[in-house]
Design a protein that fits this description.
Blueprint (H helix, E strand, L loop, with lengths): L5 H10 L4 H23 L7 H7 L20 H13 L6 H8 L4 H14 L8 H4 L1
Length: 134
């Protein structure tokens, strides 16, 4: 499966003015998932999507947020403007839909993976691969 490079992921965070606390959460999830993936690899389970999947799993989280300020975080005007635009464009959609929309042309299989991750998080699918479980 073709995946975006790590630097391309960071460029997407900048392009879509992802608030700092969401960006930091995505990095933490990616690192945590890598730790789990390494332990699974020792047991013979190969997982390839964890780093980039963890990094981009909440790229479009702002779409579902009612507010951007979080525990004292003051969003920038650019973050607020992008948030309003994305919420209007993807009204009532799970954040996996705009992420899929953004990535589908260049990374179609990965975009489907993110969309499925969104469905999993909404308990719509119970049959999961190791990548989805992690």
């Amino acid at each position: 499966m073709k995946l975006p490079a790590e630097e391309e992921c960071y460029a997407l965070f900048r392009q879509y003015n992802v608030p700092k606390h969401i960006f930091e959460h995505c990095i933490a999830i990616s690192n945590f998932g890598l730790g789990i993936a390494l332990k699974l690899k020792e047991k013979g389970v190969s997982i390839d999507l964890v780093k980039i999947g963890g990094l981009l799993h909440d790229l479009m989280k702002v779409v579902v947020l009612d507010k951007l300020d979080y525990e004292g975080y003051k969003p920038t005007q650019a973050e607020i403007n992008t948030w309003k635009e994305l919420r209007a464009r993807y009204k009532y959609r799970h954040e996996s839909y705009p992420a899929c929309d953004i990535l589908k042309d260049k990374y179609p299989d990965f975009a489907k993976f993110l969309l499925r991750e969104g469905e999993l998080s909404q308990n719509m699918i119970t049959d999961r691969s190791w990548e989805e479980k992690v």
